[in-house]
Amino acid sequence: MSDLDARPAVTEGAVLELYESRQVPLGGVRGMRVDRLLPHRSLPTVGGWCFLDRFGPQRTDMRVLPHPHTGLQTVTWPLRGEIRHRDSLGNDVLLRPGQLNLMTAGHGVSHSEFSVGESPLLDALQLWLALPADRAAVEAGFEQHTELPVYEDGGLRATVFAGGLGGTVSPATVYTPLVGADLALAAGTAASVPLRRDFEHGLLVLSGELEVAGTRLAAGPLLYLGTGRDEVPVSASAEARAVLLGGEPFPDDLVMWWNFVGRDHEEIAAARAEWEDGDRFGTVPGHGGERIPAPVLPAVRLRPRSRRPR
C-alpha cells in the first residue's frame, strides 16, 4: 500500500462513523481472502493502531514467506486455526486461538507465517501498532503470551490482548497508551464497555450482531467512536463477538508502504534497499533462500498520511 492520497481529516469528539473493509491481495498467500479495515483513506489510524486485516474464516493454505518490517509492532490474534511463526531473532513458535504473538520490528526484523495442516480452517486478525518517533528504531523483539487477563461484566467477557481496559492490563509490551480487547457477549447481554475519554476507539464485530450506542452493527465494517467517551453501551440478543481498538490519537504523520512504517520517503526507500541488498533484517531459518521480494517504489514521492481536524 502506498500513501498517495490527499490528507484525510479527523473528527474530534464522540461520533458514530462506519468504515467499510476492502479486499486486497496479500503477497505470498495463495487463494486467501483478506479484508482490510485500516488504514482507511479517511481514517489512517485509531490510536497507535495503523493496520487491521482480517483473513477468514476460510479453508486455505497460508504461506507467508520471510518479509521485513520496520517502525512497527505486529500483533497476530488468531480466531480459528494454528499459525507457525518464525523470525530472524531465532523464534519458532506455534500460535493458537486465545494466544497473542507480538513482534517489535524497531530498526528491522523479518519473519514468516505458515498455517498448520492441509487446508485448515483459518480466521485471524493481523494488526500493526506504529511505534512513536523516539522508539521507532528500538531493538527488535518477540513475545508470545499464552495467558491473557479478562475483564468481565455480566455477560460481557473481554480478553485484553494489548494495553488496558477498565483496570485490566495486558502483559504485552506496547509503547503508546492504548487498548486492544476481544469482546465476547452472551445472548441477552446488555453492558457498558469502559473507555478512556482521551482515547479514540473503533469497534469491529467478528460474529453475530451488536447494538452499539443505539446503532445496529453486523460483522464487516469498522465503527469509529471518536473520542470523549467514558463508556459505550453494547447489547446482543444472540451470542456475538467483537474486537475493540483504541488509544491516544497518534501524534505523528506516517508514511506506510509495503511492510514499512516511517516518517518520510527517504526512510522507506532506505529500508527497501536494505531488504533487497543488505543484512539489516537478518535471515529467517528454515526457508533456504526463499523470501518475498520488495515491490518497486512508485515513480512519485511517498507522502505521509496525516489527520487534521474538520
TrEMBL record:
Looking at the record, the residues that make up the Pirin C-terminal domain are: 181-281
Q: Which cofactor does it need?
A: Fe cation
- The signal sequence is none
Chain sites annotated for binding Fe cation: 67, 69, 111, 113
Q: Which CDD domains match?
A: cupin_pirin_C
Give GO terms: molecular function aspect only. Answer: metal ion binding
| Annotated ranges, domain Pirin N-terminal | 32-129
What the record notes about the co-factor is: Binds 1 Fe cation per subunit.
Question: Which UniProt keywords are given for this protein, alphabetically ordered?
Answer: Iron, Metal-binding
Report any Pfam family annotated for this entry. Pirin
Which family is this protein grouped under? Belongs to the pirin family.
Q: What is this protein called?
A: Pirin
Q: Which organism is it from?
A: Actinoallomurus iriomotensis
The uppermost taxa in this organism's lineage are: Bacteria, Bacillati, Actinomycetota, Actinomycetes, Streptosporangiales
